């Protein structure tokens, strides 16, 4: 027996899931707090690692985020809102998983910046796109977006 979820509930779940993904991806802005720990971790296996090399992760992440945001509308139209949110969340998850086992600084910068940046860019516009599932959820999406900005 297959349980059919009401369309209104799917819209609300998508908007709330989008909010959660946006909050979780917010740590791209906390790179200054993560920098000493990442530098320490990478320098434990490679003595030539400097904080200036590892700091390059944030600018590259921002560039990748813009690229992700640029392709998000196209992905949303081709894949649908739920699948493109899933793709963004998977890219962020892959960034964290791979970053935890990489010990080469340049590879770390590339993987963390690329996957996290593009994933974050894809989901950063998701609250706006998720209202297409349920036009009645526009007020909920606007409230969530306002709450996210305040957090």
Structure, described:
With 151 residues, the protein is mainly α. The chain has one domain (20-26, 50-150). The chain contains eight helices and no strands. It has helices at 7-24, 31-43, 51-55, 57-79, 81-99, 105-124, 126-130, 138-150. The protein is elongated, with a radius of gyration of 17 Å.
Short description:
The chain contains 8 helices and no strands. By secondary structure, the chain is an all-alpha fold. The protein has one domain (20-26, 50-150).
End-to-end separation? 41 Å
The total domain count is 1
* Estimated structural class: mainly alpha
Radius of gyration: 17 Å
Low-confidence stretches: 147-151
The number of helical runs is 8
Largest sheet entry: none
Global mean pLDDT: 76
- What pattern of helices and strands is seen along the backbone? HHHHHHHH
């Amino acid at each position: 027996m297959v349980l059919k979820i009401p369309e209104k509930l799917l819209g609300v779940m998508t908007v709330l899931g989008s909010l959660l993904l946006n909050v979780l991806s917010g740590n791209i802005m906390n790179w200054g707090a993560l920098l000493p720990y990442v530098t320490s971790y990478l320098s434990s296996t490679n003595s030539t690692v400097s904080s200036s090399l590892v700091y390059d992760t944030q600018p590259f992440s921002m560039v990748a985020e813009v690229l992700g945001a640029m392709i998000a509308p196209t992905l949303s139209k081709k894949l649908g809102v739920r699948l493109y949110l899933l793709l963004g969340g998977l890219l962020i998850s892959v960034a964290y998983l791979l970053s935890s086992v990489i010990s080469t600084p340049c590879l770390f910068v590339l993987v963390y910046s690329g996957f996290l940046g593009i994933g974050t860019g894809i989901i950063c516009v998701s609250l706006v796109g998720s209202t297409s599932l349920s036009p009645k959820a526009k007020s909920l999406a606007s409230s969530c977006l306002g709450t996210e900005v305040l957090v």
